[in-house]
Structures are given as structure tokens and as C-alpha cells.
Amino acid sequence: MSSDEVNGSAAVVDRMAGALPEPGSAKSDPILVVDGVKRSFGGLTAVDVEHLEVQRGTITALIGPNGAGKSTCFNLLTGFDRVDSGRWTFEGRSINGKRGHQVARAGMVRTFQLTKALTRLSVLDNMLLGAQGQTGERMGGAFLRSVWGRQEKVNTERALDLLERFKLIDKRRDMAGALSGGQRKLLEMARALMTDPSMIMLDEPMAGVNPALVQSLLHHITSLRDEGKTVLFVEHDMDVIMGISDWIVVLAQGRVIAEGRPSDIRSNQQVIDAYLGAQEVEDEGSVSGDE
Amino acid sequence: MDILMILAEAARSAVGPIAAIYALAAVGLNMHFGYTGLLNFGQVGFMLVGAYGVGISVAVFGLPVSVGFLVGLACAVVLALLLGIPTLRLRADYLSITTIAAAEVLRLVYRASFAESVTNGVYGLQNLSSGFRAVNPFDGGARYGFGSFVFTGNQLWLMTVAWGLVGLAVLLTWLLIHSPWGRVIKGIREDEDAVRSLGKNVFAYKMQALVLGGLLGALAGAMLAMHQGAIQPDQFKPQVTFFLWVILLLGGAGRVFGPILGSMAFWFLMSFTDGLLRWMGREGWLPFLSGPDFGAIQLAFAGVMLVLLIVFRPQGLIGDRKEMLVNVK
User: Fold this and answer.
1) Reading across the β-sheet that carries A247-252, which strands appear in turn?
2) pLDDT for A144
3) What are phi and psi of B189, to 5 degrees?
4) Rounded to whole angstroms, how far apart are CA atoms A196 and A184?
5) Residue A276 distance to chain B (closest CA, Å)
6) Interface of A with B in 92-151 (CB under 8 A)
7) Neighbour-count burial for B124-157, b at 16+ CB within 10 Å, e otherwise
8) Closest approach of chain B CAs to the CA of A194, in angstroms?
């Protein structure tokens, strides 16, 4: 992979093509369109999104105070939880009601807040699991190496390329459980890329990662966008969010209360009241020391 | 000299028909737990339907043994589907609760009076193995071996077939585990949500593994019916499942040859402790014990040995300690 440079002119290009900074605003080229998605647990409405569009080829951040429904929203959209009502389309195709693996096959792949490295598999095996359409994964085809050997070779090459790019190549034979927390985050992201998604959903990619690795993760996220992939991520670190996002969606109590470019969000009084005021104080102590 | 006799007898058990049959069922359990992470506490239920599949076909309907085997295997598929469809979408513990209960329910149903017309209730079914013995290439009554290490021709035939099936099952497991299919089910063992997020239909894979391991359990049950020539429901108690678990953990879960080594070691130990206790009893060294106590003491003794082994070698005889330690999250 060549594009190891951070695109310095990122801020100059307007990827949002004039979208209005208001909740539910229309985008010129939406990859994901969400309509009326609701989910409640008992009496508590966790998610109630009336309308949300995610622009193709951008980094969109989903932020909000604790309990705002960010992770639930992720689970719903990726088929890991069932909605009470609502519809959503991905690349123009309806994917509501689809299960987690079907959503992933459609090209929308996710990572998890608590990293899910497959600990007793090697790093390379972790990667190979991400490859799609493997004949050897069907029981009928599994018995004969001659049936799946070629495909395996191609997949292995691609996996090694990705590991090289994520600087995990020296660890390829190690058990994934032997990696550090930050390396597991990298592995999870690389593994997600192995599925060759058009949209990647990252649930708190920076959580628990040491400051040195944060820079490298940020760099990987921006280079994903520069390759034309769409990134939607949940994050708490405001410096990170303001630094790399093209667009920010603010959730509070399950609703979208604001949308816009980082500059719009920074000056949005509603957001400051609901979230930023309290959050910034928290951040002083915990995370922002590294930037 | 006596101790040599005891050792010879123990070695005989380690390669005997029962060790082969338990190894076969444990290979199935290894597919469930060792590779896919399915907690199946009812493997004996699969053995039961396998044994009764062949038993009822032969004794009640007079069908050939080969057809009986197929019936037993078909029953195992049905049982796996019945167990798997409601529980495999849920958390792992639901399968374990369901399987342990289902195996007991099966035993109670097969021994119940309303089922007597086909299962013959608590008395069980007899004369099952004549069809199997009819194709015995060895001389059924003759003795083969040397010293005290002898088997009858019938036993030898059964051992040949049973160990042959174990060999086939191990080969099958090896091929599957070293394929992309095996990678997916090992991934499911580690974290099924992660595997799901990579576009794999986790439910379908778990179902395939459950059916496959269940088929091996049923095959073991059918071989048990051939070995004994008679079956009755109460030999399929939950303790059989737990013997299988001990065998699996002893040998090393998630290792292709683990169940074989585990079964041989287990039956060696069981026979050795039994022989030793009886010998000590005969010599008058255990005056406070009478005959029936030996069985209980033997189980306890074997249990202590197994506990020691699990404490000092948790990965089993051929497990990978590194892999065990990595699992501490």
C-alpha cells in the first residue's frame, strides 16, 4: 500500500458538498440513509433517529454523552441488535432486518468498543477470517486443499500486505492474544479491511490506546478515507474528533440533536449545553495530555 | 508378578473396544467444545440415539445392521437440529443446559413403559450383533494375542472397526480443522460476534459442528450396541458424558489426537486402579473394605489422579500450554 502520507490538504476539500449543518440534513451522495430507527429497552428509548444520511467517502463522527445511544445505534445499523421500527438503506439497498453477517457481506463492516481479537488464533489467521467468498469455508469444499489452496494464497498475500501497512507483519505468526491493547485495535481494523468494505464503522477506535499509537491509528483512518472508503466512528476524544472528521453527528438521549462540520459543532450552543461543556472538563484530566 | 498382570490388564483396556468407542464419542465432543466452543453436556444423548437407532432397527424391525447404522446417524442429525435450532442463537450456556436435560429426557423416554413396544423399556434390546459378527473375518471364538494380552476374535473384529472409525474421524477432523472452515469455527470459539462482523453465518457453522460431533457420538453408540450385543437405557446415564469430558480434557481439548490419547489414558487408569485395589484387597491389606466398596474407591482414586493432572497439566497430555495461557483475557 502506497498512500502512507496523510493528505495535508484534507481540510481544504469540501467532501460534504454544501450539506446544511442541521439535524437530518440531506447529503449529495449518501452511502447510508436512516429513517425513523427506534429502539427502546423497557421504558427507556435508547435510539430514536428520525433521519440521518452519511456522505460517501467521508469521515463522519458520531458523538454524544455517555448513554446517548451511540453504541446501540451502531449495533442496530450493523444488524447486531433488532430495531423496534424504522428503515435504512446502504448503497441504495435496504438492509434493515438483515443479520450481522449479511450486513457485513453487503460491505458495511464494524469493529467493537471492547476489542475482539480472536486470541487463540494467529494474527495471520485473524486476518484470513476477514476474506469473503472463500470456497474452503464451505464444509463441502473444506476437505480438499486443491479446491481452496489457490484462493488461500491470494488471500494470504493480501493479508500480509495489510499487516505490513498496519506494522503488524512481524507478529503474523504470534497468537493474537499476545498482542498489546493498541496492537489489537490495529489488528481489528486491518481485519475489518480484509473484508474489503465500502464503509467501515469504528466503535471507539482510540479507547485504551497509548498516545503514540493514537497518531498511527488516526493516520490509518484518514488514509482509509483517502482510498475512497466511508468511515463512521464513535469517539470521545474531542481533539481527535475535531482533527479528522469531515462531519459530526451529535446524539443525545437517542436523538440527533445536531449535525455539521467541526467548526459548526464547536459553536453550536445546543451541543455545548448537552455535551461539550461537561465533556471538555472530563477530557482535561483523562485523555488530552497526548496531543 | 501380580503387578505385571494388573499392568497388562490395564494396557488391554487402553486399546480395547470400550476405549475405542469412548475415543470416537470424544472426537465428536472435541469438535463441539475443543474447536467450536459448544458446551455439550449431553453427548451421551447422541450415543443413545445411535445405539437405539441400530438396536430398534435390528431387534424390532429385523433390518440389516448397516441400515440400522444409517437410522442411528439420521436420529443424531434430527437430535442435533432439535437441540441447535432453539439454542445456538443464544448464549453458550443455554446449549449446555438444554443438552444435559435432553440426554436425560431421552433416557427416561426410552425406558418408559409407553415406549416398551419398540424399546422394550428397562429390559433393553438383545441379540443385536449377529449381523455384525457375521462379517467378522476373524474366527469369533478363537483367542488372539499373547500372555494375558488376549482378545477373542469377536472383540478383535470390533476393535478393528471401532479404531478404524476413530482413525477416519480423526482424519476428517484434521482435514476440516486445517481448512478455512476450521479457521471459522475456531474463530467462533474465541468470539462469535467478531466472526459475525466479518460476514460469516455463525449460526450455520455452529449447527454444522453440532451435527458433525453428534454423528460421531451416534456412531460410538452404535458401536457400543455392536460390542455388547445388547443395550438398555440406564447405561446412558449422564456419567458417560462426564467420562467423555474427562477424556477430552485429559488428552487435550482442541487437539486432533487429544481424544484418542485421553481415552487410552483414561481407561488405562480406570483399569489399573481397579486391578490394584482388588489385588490389595485379596492380599488382605484393606481389611476395612469389602468387595462392593472397591468400585467407589476406584472412581475416587481415578478422580484424584485426574484432578492432579488437571492442576499440573491443565492443557491435557498433548495440549499447548502457551495456547492455554493466552486464553486468560
Assistant:
1) A108-110, A199-203, A230-234, A59-63, A247-252, A255-260
2) 87
3) -60, -40
4) 19
5) 32
6) 99-102, 104-105, 109-112, 116-121, 125-126, 128-130, 132, 134, 136-139, 141-143, 145, 148
7) bbeebbebbbeebebeeeeeeeeeeeebbbbbbb
8) 9
Round to whole Å and give the CA distance between B197 and B194.
5
- Which residue did the predictor score with more confidence, B28 or A69? B28
What phi and psi, each to the nearest 5 degrees, are found at residue B328? -70, 110
Query: Which 3 state secondary structure label does DSSP give A233?
Result: strand
Q: Do B199 and A109 touch (CB under 8 A)?
A: yes
Instruction: Say whether both A149 and A225 belong to one domain.
Output: no
CA distance A76 to B36: 26
A233 phi and psi angles, rounded to 5 deg: -140, 150
Q: Which of B195, B199, B326 sits opposite A119 (nearest CB)?
A: B326
CB contact under 8 A, A125 and B201: no
Mean pLDDT by 10 residues, chain A (291 residues): 43 69 84 92 89 92 88 92 91 89 94 88 95 91 89 95 93 90 90 94 86 87 92 88 90 89 85 65 45 35
Average the pLDDT over each of B218-232, B235-249, B299-313 and give the range with the smallest value: B299-313
Say how many CB pairs under 8 Å bridge A and B: 111
From A100's Cα to the closest Cα of chain B, the distance in A is 6
pLDDT over 60 (residue B267):
yes
Contact B183 A129 (CB under 8 A): yes
**Least confident piece of the model among A56-65, B1-10, B116-125:** B1-10
Measured between alpha carbons, how far apart are the two ends of chain B, in Å? 51
Last residue of a domain, one of A135, A151, A178: A178
Residue with cell 495530555: A289
A145 shares a domain with A36: no
Q: Looking only at Cα atoms, what is the longest distance across chain B?
A: 67
Interface contact flag, B176 A110, Cβ < 8 Å: no
Residue A39 belongs to what H/E stretch?
A: strand A30-41
Going by their DSSP bridges, the two strands A247-252 and B143-146 should be labelled as: unpaired
Question: What is the ipTM for the molecules in this complex?
Answer: 0.85
Residue with cell 494474527: A123
Is the residue at A191 inside a domain? Answer: no
* Partner-chain residue, chosen from B179, B198, B327, that has the shortest CB–CB distance to A136: B179
Residue A42, domain extent: 1-117+197-291
Alpha-carbon A189 to chain mean position: 9
Architecture of domain B2-326: Orthogonal Bundle (1.10)
Q: What is the DSSP string of A40-93?
A: EETTEEEEEEEEEEEETTSEEEEE-STTSSHHHHHHHHTTSS--SEEEEEETTE
All structural domains of chain B with their residue ranges: 2-326
* Mean of pLDDT values over B290-299: 78
A272 within a domain of the structure (yes/no): yes
Helix axis angle for B258-282 and B238-251, nearest 10°, is: 110
Q: Which chain B residues are Cβ-neighbours of A178 within 8 angstroms?
A: 326
Q: What is the pTM of this model?
A: 0.89
Task: Please answer yes or no on whether A118 and B190 come within 8 Å at the CB atom.
Answer: yes
The answer to whether B308 faces chain A, any CB pair under 8 Å, is no
